[in-house]
Amino acid sequence: MELRTIKTFHTIVQSGSFYKAAEILNYSQPTISMRIKQLEQDVGAQLFERGKKLKLTRAGRLFHERAGQLLAQYEVLDHTLADIRQGQAGLIQIGISEPTASLIFPAVLRGFLNDYPDMSVNVSVDDANTCSRKLLEGTIDFAVCGEPELILENYFDPFFHDSLNVIVSDRHPLAAKTSINLEDLENECLIFTPANCPIRIQIEQHLQRAIGSRYRKMELTSSMAHQYYVRENIGVSIFTATAHSEPIGGTKVIPIRNLTISPPVGLLTNQKEEHFDSATKDLISRIISRFQRDPH
After folding, report:
1. Inter-residue contact 92 to 141 (CB < 8 Å)
2. 158: cis peptide before it, omega within 30°?
3. Do 124 and 168 share a structural domain?
């Protein structure tokens, strides 16, 4: 029984199909099918129910549980051997959401790479749900993001809660105020992130309670671009204090008195943190310390 065959089985179950597993592992579908056939012969039991829908047999469910533990232990061993062979050399693949990716992480990464010159770090800038999916696929090691939709295999541990402000053009009438209420946004054009963003949904729920539907909407998928559209007085944007920590010229950040939303930022993993190598643990610690010290 080969480790790569066990990994193939585990990837099929995690991804939900033979086709997706073939894409993730970069194998042909006949190769995937052949390995599962060989694995079932080695195990001496059928692991998948035969039919259109992917479903594990009782033996398959038990094998999946044990296979996951085996692969996790092998990954720990592999990281340990790599540390022994190469010192602190290696590759960390991290997923990060905005604004952390642009405003917080670069300074953290600079210090980390100064101390670990033989380490390489790849950064994927994505929303929380995309980070969660990539973590499940194994294309990133961990993520720093907001809370994603719940997935059984992934764990979200918040370490910071942000606050929300409104950013307006310095030519906007609201720019004369030092703070506002949601009611002051009646008839304004609100620039929002995509409709499936959990924070946007919460903001709109608060707006509905305060002013009903008496506001206009514009959707702008790049959160870090909002301030540039605001500067041109196209609309106003409600966003985190971290995102507004370095406002551009021509804009003003104003606190909202009656908006009690505290968006979480946290560590997203699909394994216990102690399984990470020492360098990855140190990078995680530096990120958390940066937030807890003064994210703004």
Report:
1. yes
2. no
3. no
Q: What is the pLDDT of residues 251-286, one digit of tens each?
A: 999 999 999 999 999 999 986 555 788 888 899 999
> How many domains are contained in the chain?
3
Cα within 13 Å of Cα(204), Cβ side: 19
Of the residues 26, 50, 82, which one is the last residue of a structural domain?
A: 82
My answer on whether 280 and 134 are in the same domain is yes
pTM value > 0.70 = no
Whether 186 contacts 159, CB under 8 Å: no
Q: Is the pLDDT of residue 221 over 70?
A: yes
Residues 101 and 148 in one domain: yes
Of the candidates 135, 125, 134, 137, the one whose C-alpha atom is nearest the C-alpha of residue 155 is: 135
**Which amino acid, one-letter code, is at 117?**
P
Judge whether 141 and 280 are in contact, CB under 8 Å.
Answer: yes
Pair of tokens at residue 167: 């950013």
Q: Which two tokens stand for residue 73?
A: 């232990």
List the domain range (segments joined by +) for residue 52.
3-82
Per DSSP, 178 falls in state: S
Q: Are 265 and 160 in contact (CB under 8 A)?
A: yes
Same domain, 50 and 193: no
Confidence of residue 157 (pLDDT cuts 50, 70, 90): very high
Mean predicted confidence (pLDDT) in 6-29: 88
CATH number of the domain encompassing residue 9: 1.10.10.10
